[in-house]
Amino acid sequence: MLRRVISLFSGAGGLSLGFAQAGLKPIFGIDINHDACITYENNLGISCHNLDLGASNNSELLNLLSPHQDVLAVIGGPPCQGFSSAGSRNGLDPRNLLIFNYFAIVEKVRPLWFLFENVEGLLTSNNGKSVFELVRRFISLGYSLRLEKVNFAAYGLPQSRKRVIIIGNRVGASFNFPFETHSFDAGKHNKLLPLFPHSPTLDEAILGLPEVATSECLIPYTNITPINEYDTFMRLLNDSGGVKHHFSSKRDNDLERYKLLKPGQTMKDLPENLWHPSYRKRAFRRVLDGTPTEKRGGAPVGIKRLHAHQCSPTITSASSHECIHPVFDRPLTLRECARLQSFGDDYVFSGSTSSIATQIGNAFPPLAAKIFAETVSQIEGKAGSGMAFPFLRKAQLIGYRLTDSSGMSPKLMHTDSLLKSLMSNQVEEKFLHA
Ligand SMILES: C[S@@+](CC[C@H](N)C(=O)[O-])C[C@H]1O[C@@H](n2cnc3c(N)ncnc32)[C@H](O)[C@@H]1O
Predict the structure, then answer these.
(1) 202-362 has which fold?
(2) Residue ranges in 152-263 assigned as alpha helix (H)
(3) Which of 25, 76, 128, 267 has a CA 20 to 30 Å removed from the CA of 214?
(4) What is the mean pLDDT of residues 70-89?
(5) How far does residue 13's CA lie from ligand 1's centre (Å)?
(6) Bridge partners of 147?
(7) What is the assigned CATH class of domain 4-184+366-433?
(8) 80 catalytic per annotation
């Protein structure tokens, strides 16, 4: 079976790491961020080309991507600032066009499979037309695909992190996404399923770490033996006896704010005279469709004290100054954020503190990446072995899931109707050609 994988927009390497852990073989990454490339190379031992994937006529890029007949998968998550609810949601943001650069590379390389990741804002960006067009193009190219919004907490991540994933193949295999394996409670978002084990809580994920330092250094573990299953998992490959990136970035003039916050409380629960000026500016802003920003995904919470016994909220580049530890009066450290993203303690990031925070916040959690990679690998193995297998007669949208909740916003309903029409046209075509 082919195992070679190319990672686009590879960042710090979360997606590639998971694919490697599943027994596949990332052959190189590409990213515009120099620090992320160094992190990728140092940890994965694979080259990462520091290139702009938006410059489609760059000769180095063209050489690198000359058709690889033997590539199992192209994987990657184009940047999402333009789509993110924390960003501008500007359909015309040039970074949004990078989703079509991703498509163009799949078109050139023609892997058997691809995996595409993005934020949920992609679903409603440009009135659903961006995602519809992307799906349509993949199908025209001969790929059968599934699109689903997933929450990685349902796969055992100690973090509620909702992402849109599209997986496609051109071998005609019908397939499902991996089964969800865990219940989780993240406060606002939860899925409590009887018989399913719980995803680790924030507390369980970070409790085995030693006390924080005041600046970057290797801090030895306090408990020589791991204190729970997740702690064991995090320490598995770490033979340094301690952790890096575990220093407090607390701001002295925020100390009073930290002390007043109880778990679950945010800047808006503080007396107004303690609000940060930047928060005050955003607090009452309404976005274009009239929804107050605090009702949207990436609400301007300013700072927030987390709950110990829930999974963490989505880790972003801001978490190491906005997410306050459940017990201590300080924000999460970079290492705590990395653990919540399921990077083992041996994973060392390169660059400044803010560059590392961005790399961690951007990453596809390796734990989830491994699960998705195993699914691709198993289906490919079955399909390639000639076993009885549900093969499709032509490229199509096999299925999609836009939300787990019972209702949809008008914008999401519009996207739903576009994708539905795509599927019903397929049925008619199938019928016509039967
Ligand atoms: C969402 S992150 C992907 C994270 C990665 N999948 C991981 O698992 O760690 C998006 C990445 O795209 C990179 N990027 C943004 N614009 C780019 C461009 N024009 N060319 C190449 N990479 C770009 C960013 O530096 C960032 O690392």
Answers:
(1) DNA Methylase; Chain A, domain 2 (3.90.120)
(2) 202-206, 229-235, 255-260
(3) 267
(4) 75
(5) 10
(6) 166, 400
(7) alpha beta
(8) yes
